[in-house]
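A quick aside before the break. I want you to see a complete sequence-to-structure record at least once, exactly as it would be stored in a machine-readable document. Don't worry about memorizing anything.
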Amino acid sequence: MANNLKTYLKDPLLLDMYQQIRKVGAIKSISLDLTHRCNIRCVGCYYFEEGMDTFQSPKDDILFDAFLDSEIERGTNFITIVGGEPSLEINRIRKIYDRFYLSVATNGIRKIPYKGLEHLPIGVAVWGNPETDKQLRGNGKIDVFSKALANYKDDPRAFWYYTVAPGHSYEIAGVVERCVANGNRVLFNYYSDLSGLGNEYDYRLGFDMVRAEIDNMIRQYPGMIFMTPYFNKIISTGRLFDMKWGYEVCTNISTNLPLNEDRMNNGNPFNPHFRAYHADFKTTRRCCTGSDRDCASCFDTWEHFSWIMVHLRQHLSSKEDFSNWLTTMYLFYTINRLIDPDIGMNLLHNTLYTSDRQLA
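That is the input. The structure line, written in C-alpha cells, reads:
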C-alpha cells in the first residue's frame, strides 16, 4: 500500500495537495455548543429536537476559560463551534479564535464582526429558496435568508451551508445563484426531517435528484462549490465501499463516554481525540448531532468528512480511489481556511477536471 501511495504522488497535482495538508498537520478536533440560546427555532434543528438546550451555558467566563485551557492541555487544536447560535457569544468566539483552528456555524441573522476575526471560517445556514427558508427557519414570518445575505455580502470568510430537502432539488439552482452573486461559496448539507414533516422533506425518499443537481452546480460554478462529486455521492447514499452509514461506523463519537465503548471496540476506526461538548462546557453527548436519534436520519456533512478521512487504507487500491480520498481531505482543509480558499479551490478544480481525470 505504501508503494501505491508513492506511485500516486508522482502526479504533481496530487503531490501538491498532499504536501499542503502535511504542512498544516493533523487535526485534533472537538465540537462545542458555544451557547444553549438561539434567536430563531428552525423546524427540524437537531439541537432543539434532541433537547440539547437543557445543558445551559454559564454566564461567567471562568468555567469557559478553564475549559479552553483543559482542551489545550489535552492536545485539541480545532474546534467546530455550533449551538445554539454562536453569534450571541462573540467574545467567546474571539477567545477560541486566538488559540485554536476553528469554524463556526451561524443562522446569519446577527453578523459576526470582521475586525479581529478576519480569517474565521463562517458557515451561514440556508435551507431553501426564500419561501421554503422562511417557513422552515423564520416561522413563516422572518426572511432569514435576506438578512444573512445582507450581513455577509462579499465577505470572504463566509460560505453558505445549504441544507436541501429530498423533494426540493428544483430550488438548488436559484439558491446557489443568489449565494454566488452575493460573493460567497456554497457547501451542501442534506435535510433530516427530525420534526416529522414527511412528504417532500422525508429523508427516506432519497437524495438522488438532489445529488444530481449538486453535481450540476459543481460544474456550473467552478471554484465556488465546496463539494466534489465523490463527497456528494458518499453523503447522499450513505455508502463507502462495503460500509453502510450508521452508528457502527460513525467516527465522530465522544470517546470519553462509556455508552460508546462497544462502538469503539467493534473494529471500525474512529477519531480517538474527538468529543462533542454541550453548552455547559463539561458534559458530552454520543456524537456531533445526536444523543438518541436514529443515525439513519443523519446526513451531516462534517461527520461524513470524517468517515472518509479515516479510511485512507481503503482508498489506496487505485489512483482514482486515492484521488477521491485526497480531494475530500483537501476540501475539508480548504473550507476551514487551513489552506487559502482561493488557492485551494483552484487546485481542487484542476485536480478534478483536468483532461485525464474525471472523478466519480
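Two observations worth writing down. The mean pLDDT is 95. The longest helix spans residues 319-335. We'll return to this after the break.
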